[in-house]
Design brief:
Layout: H1 32-43, H2 55-83, H3 85-91, H4 103-123, H5 125-155, H6 174-182, H7 193-227, E1 259-260, E2 263-264, H8 302-318, H9 323-354, H10 367-383, H11 386-423
Antiparallel strand pairs: 1-2
Helix pairs in contact: 1-2, 1-4, 1-10, 1-11, 2-3, 2-4, 4-5, 4-6, 5-6, 6-7, 6-8, 7-8, 8-9, 8-10, 9-10, 10-11
Length: about 425
């Protein structure tokens, strides 16, 4: 049985309900990932070590498409909030969609960066700089809200419990994108305290995202090695300990009765609490499990890795610290790049094995990989190493191929959904059908 990952709203579980195969554009936050993925295809061109005739012009067209699409999605989302505010607020309790509220701020930041890097060719530097600042401030402010607000909602139980997956990183990555894109704004500030404040602020944003990522990444790794990106081995939605059983016994804490010292259902192995305990399967009322459709979100891990390499090296180039800033970018960037390449290979293998059906999670193939392109190219510029030059170009070719494929599938899927709406066909799809 295959599960598509984005019903309009999860009730208390995943795995048994029918839902729309593709939400209407702009009605859910994960749609903004399409702006991110399109924008990064354009934004990577100015930093590529390879400059082909017409490539910058083509990239500017792609940036314009991303900018227009961003305006459309924002307009639809604003209308949706006015029409159905309760439904939008309910998404903040959704175990999957809640995390994708990190996408809108990153979409703003991506388009803003492209406006300064590419849009200036069409609208001039003063206008491009003004738009870039507005989008950077808005994206940074909204990104800090998601970086603090979503973890807080999870800690306080205001998001339905779900197992760790790559999407958990979405709310905490925006500050890293702010750090990377903010570096391009530094030279346009007056020399002195203004530039120093901006640089230090960007380094602080770098730290916000970096340490949040370091806290979440082990949880995602543990989830992958214990049960894969979707269902546990066998596809039953049960933990490895047996049919609904924790490793220590019948869904009970090792050696215990499943009861905490002060009451029922509080022990780590108690019913409805421990992984594998009763009520935790995909058809139980406890933790929410994703299906194979969530496998592409493994690629999201590449986002903070590649973006941090980009930010470290771009900030090192504009920081008033001389060679120390550039060396810091290299010393951080090269080991992180190595791990990113390891994760890229694992992510490809996981997705191929999962055979995930098309959904909006496929946009996870684009922006995270794009940050690896910009990070690799930044290392190529700083070190002069041909290794990074070749790798940067190869990764960009892969990015363009994936972006073209995902864009085509999205257009076809949207067309089919709109055709069903026009024909009055019910917009539901039973799990298990592709």
């Amino acid at each position: 049985m295959r599960c598509l990952p984005f019903p309009s709203i999860y009730p208390e579980r995943v795995g048994m309900a029918s839902f729309s195969p593709l939400p209407r554009a702009g009605t859910t936050p994960n749609w903004f990932a399409s702006v991110m993925g399109t924008g990064i295809v354009a934004n990577a061109v100015p930093v590529l070590p390879l400059h082909l005739p017409g490539l910058r012009g083509a990239a500017t067209v792609v940036w314009a498409i991303a900018a227009v699409w961003l305006v459309v999605l924002c307009a639809v989302m604003a209308g949706e909030w006015r029409r159905n505010a309760s439904g939008q607020l309910a998404q903040l309790r959704d175990p999957v969609l809640a995390h994708f509220w990190g996408a809108p701020p990153m979409a703003l930041l991506t388009v803003g960066a492209g406006t300064l890097a590419l849009g200036r060719d069409w609208i001039g530097l003063p206008a491009a700089l003004g738009v870039a600042w507005v989008l950077w401030v808005a994206g940074t402010a909204l990104g800090l809200v998601t970086a603090v607000g979503l973890p807080y909602r999870m800690i306080t139980g205001r998001v339905v419990d779900g197992e760790a997956f790559g999407g958990w990183l979405m709310p905490v990555v925006p500050p890293m994108v702010s750090a990377a894109t903010g570096a391009a704004l530094v030279p346009h500030l007056p020399a002195g305290q203004a530039r120093l404040t901006m640089v230090l602020g960007c380094y602080a944003l770098f730290g916000v995202s970096l340490f949040a990522t370091l806290a979440l990444l082990p949880l995602i790794w543990h989830r992958l090695v214990r049960g894969g990106p979707g269902l546990a081995p066998g596809g039953s939605g049960l933990a490895r300990g047996g049919p609904g059983l924790a490793p220590g016994g019948r869904g009970l804490a090792p050696g215990g009765s499943g009861l905490a010292p002060d009451g029922p259902d509080l022990a780590r192995g108690g019913p409805g609490v421990a992984p594998g305990g009763p009520g935790l399967a995909s058809d139980g009322p406890g933790l929410v499990r994703g299906g194979p459709g969530l496998a592409p979100t493994v690629w999201i891990v590449l986002g903070p890795l590649g973006q941090s390499i980009t930010a470290a090296n771009l900030l090192g180039g504009v920081a008033p610290f001389g060679a120390a800033g550039r060396w810091l970018g290299v010393l951080y960037g090269v080991p992180t790049w190595g791990f990113a390449m390891l994760w890229l290979v694992l992510a490809i293998a996981v997705v191929v094995r999962a055979g995930a059906p098309f959904s909006l999670t496929w946009w996870s193939f684009t922006f995270p990989l794009g940050t690896c392109v910009t990070g690799t190219c930044a290392l190529a510029e700083v070190t002069g190493a041909e290794l990074f030059t070749v790798a940067g170009v190869a990764l960009y070719v892969l990015l363009v191929g994936l972006w073209a494929a995902v864009t085509a599938r999205t257009v076809v899927a949207v067309g089919r959904v709109e055709l069903r709406r026009f024909a009055g066909t019910p917009e539901v799809q039973v799990l298990g059908r592709r």
